């Protein structure tokens, strides 16, 4: 028996890696995703097949998945598939379900109120079992199996500052959506002689992970992409994490024990494909796991409120319940 774990890179893959350990094993595991720094780092040592990127809303890319899905079904003798999406799920799950493979689709934790476009399509494929991470919108087509955030609790203690204020800023791995509003707002606040340094009386050191956001006009040492292991290590020793409100970045911060300041992207401003990020940021703030602020209105007081704030991880998170 073989379980296929299937997800696109970014937050979808972060979620699947986190949830996989809470899903009862069923034989050998094989992973299918796209190849980049994040996936190579997260899946090191696992059985992985890298496939071409499936672009958002691109029917041709979805159709191109079917030959690989057929080969994997035949060569790997797949018996179960678990996917957190997004578009790549459309190329594999319906085909494999038609071949009798036990198919499970877990909607992203970013979808707080309703399913994504991928979820809305897959909910009409009867052989695919579908799960929401929010009990509030369960129904005839969706059941609740748990949440990727169930493993985390707010930490009432605050980490004392050392000689340097260490900050991590990350906007995720999306290659098509820059987030200049956040980087432009933070650059002066986090400058060596800026407001945060003045308020704390300590020098500020920043790791800037900026993705596709242009930064040539700013006096910062930006890195487009950081190895996921290096990013997690930097967050573990950080006094402050500021991130876009993407699931992957939020999960990385939580896993590192940090309570991040989250700034939500806007679809109307070309920063995202839709407006799910404000809902996610509000949900994490409700749980006490993040601070949600508008990127254009971030202040040094917001940053000071979050400095040293952390989260705790439960030793035994509940199993994610897949239907049989």
UniProtKB/TrEMBL annotation:
InterPro entries: Glyco_trans_28_C. Transmembrane segments: none annotated. This is Glycosyltransferase family 28. The keyword Secreted does not apply. Pfam families: Glyco_tran_28_C. It comes from the Bacteria. It comes from Geodermatophilus sabuli. Residues 167-291 form the Glycosyl transferase family 28 C-terminal domain. Gene3D superfamilies: Glycogen Phosphorylase B.
